[in-house]
C-alpha cells in the first residue's frame, strides 16, 4: 500500500513540476540558474521516498567559477537524490533523445541543458567544443555523468573521456561529486530508506602532460575512494539500526 501511495505522489509531483517548470522556462528560457532550480525541486522528493539527503561540499566553494562537474550515475532515483548537489550557474549534458520525452524533455531543453548526439562522433566533438567555449566565455559550469550510463549496482563504471576533453579545452577544473551506493537501498514499501550521502570534492586541476584518458583514470580512482568511504558510513548506519 505504501508503494502505491508513493507512486501516486511521485506521478503527481512529476506532472506538476514539469508543467510549472515549463512555465518558468518560457518566462526565463535558458537562464543559467534554471537547472539548479529544477534540481532542487526534484531533490525535495527524497522526503516522499523516505530518504534523508546528507550533502556536503568544500568550505568557501565559489560556484560562480566555470567548472566541469563529474558525478556517478546509478539508477532512476538519481533524479531525486544527487540533484541535491547541482549548484547554481550549471547546465548538464544529456543525450539528444531526451528532448522527445513528453514534458520532461521540453523542460530539460528549455532549462538550458546541452543536448549531445552520441551516435555522431563529429557532432559530439562539436558539442564538446561549444561546451568548452561556454565555460570560458560565460563562466558557466557543465555537469556530466562520465560513466555514460547508469551502473545499476555494478559499481563505478569506467569513465568516458568527453568530460575531460571538455575540461582540458576550457582550461577548467574538474569537480567530482560522489554519492554512496543506492542500489537496492530505496524500497518503495519501506517507510525509512535511510540516509544517502553525497559529497562534492575540492576542484581538481587536470595534468596537461597527461591524456584525457589518463586524467579520467586518475579522477576515477579519487571518486572510487570517496564512494567507498561513503558506503562505509551507510554500513555503519545500518549496524546502528540493527542494534537498536
Outline the structure in words.
This protein has 244 residues and is α/β, with parallel strands linked by helices. The protein is 42% helix and 14% strand. It has six helices and seven strands; from the N terminus they run H-H-E-E-E-H-E-H-E-H-E-E-H. It has helices at 2-27, 34-43, 104-110, 121-138, 162-170, 212-243, and strands spanning 52-56, 68-71, 90-95, 114-116, 141-144, 174-179, 195-200. It has a seven-stranded mixed beta sheet with strand order 1-7-6-2-5-3-4, with helices on both faces. Helix 3 (104-110) links the parallel strand 3 and strand 4. Helix 1 (2-27) runs parallel beside helix 3 (104-110) and helix 5 (162-170) crosses helix 6. The longest helix is centred in the C-terminal third of the chain and has 32 residues, at 212-243. The protein is globular, with a radius of gyration of 18 Å.
Write the layout of secondary structure elements.
Layout: H1 2-27, H2 34-43, E1 52-56, E2 68-71, E3 90-95, H3 104-110, E4 114-116, H4 121-138, E5 141-144, H5 162-170, E6 174-179, E7 195-200, H6 212-243
Parallel strand pairs: 1-7, 2-5, 2-6, 3-4, 3-5
Antiparallel strand pairs: 6-7
Helix pairs in contact: 1-2, 1-3, 4-5, 5-6
Strand order of the largest sheet: 1-7-6-2-5-3-4
Order of helices and strands: HHEEEHEHEHEEH
Mean pLDDT: 90
What is the β-strand count?
7
**What's the total helix number?**
6
Oligomer: single chain
Segments where pLDDT lies below 50 for 5+ residues? none
Output the radius of gyration: 18 Å
Largest sheet: 7 strands, mixed
Distance from N terminus to C terminus (CA atoms, Å) equals 26 Å
Structural class given helices, strands, pairing? alpha/beta
Amino acid at each position: 500500500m505504501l508503494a502505491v501511495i508513493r507512486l501516486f505522489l511521485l506521478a503527481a509531483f512529476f506532472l506538476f513540476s514539469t508543467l510549472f517548470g515549463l512555465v518558468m522556462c518560457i518566462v526565463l528560457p535558458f537562464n543559467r540558474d534554471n537547472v539548479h532550480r529544477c534540481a532542487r525541486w526534484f531533490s525535495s522528493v527524497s522526503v516522499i521516498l523516505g530518504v534523508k539527503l546528507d550533502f556536503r561540499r568544500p568550505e568557501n566553494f565559489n560556484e560562480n567559477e566555470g567548472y566541469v562537474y563529474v558525478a556517478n550515475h546509478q539508477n532512476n532515483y538519481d533524479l531525486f537524490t544527487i540533484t541535491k548537489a547541482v549548484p547554481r550557474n550549471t547546465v548538464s549534458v544529456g543525450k539528444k533523445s531526451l528532448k522527445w520525452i513528453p514534458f520532461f524533455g521540453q523542460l530539460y531543453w528549455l532549462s538550458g541543458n546541452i543536448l549531445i548526439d552520441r551516435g555522431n562522433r563529429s557532432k559530439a566533438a562539436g558539442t564538446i567544443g561549444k561546451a568548452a567555449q561556454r565555460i570560458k566565455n560565460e563562466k558557466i559550469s557543465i555537469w556530466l555523468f562520465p560513466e555514460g550510463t547508469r551502473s545499476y549496482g555494478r559499481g563505478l563504471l569506467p569513465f568516458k573521456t568527453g568530460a575531460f576533453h571538455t575540461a582540458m579545452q576550457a582550461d577548467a577544473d574538474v569537480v567530482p561529486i560522489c554519492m554512496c551506493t543506492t542500489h537496492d537501498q530505496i524500497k518503495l514499501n519501506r517507510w525509512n530508506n535511510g540516509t544517502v550521502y553525497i559529497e562534492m570534492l575540492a576542484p581538481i586541476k587536470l595534468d596537461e602532460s597527461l591524456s584525457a584518458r589518463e586524467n579520467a583514470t586518475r579522477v576515477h580512482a579519487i571518486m572510487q575512494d570517496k564512494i567507498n568511504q561513503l558506503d562505509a558510513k551507510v554500513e555503519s548506519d545500518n549496524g546502528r539500526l540493527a542494534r537498536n
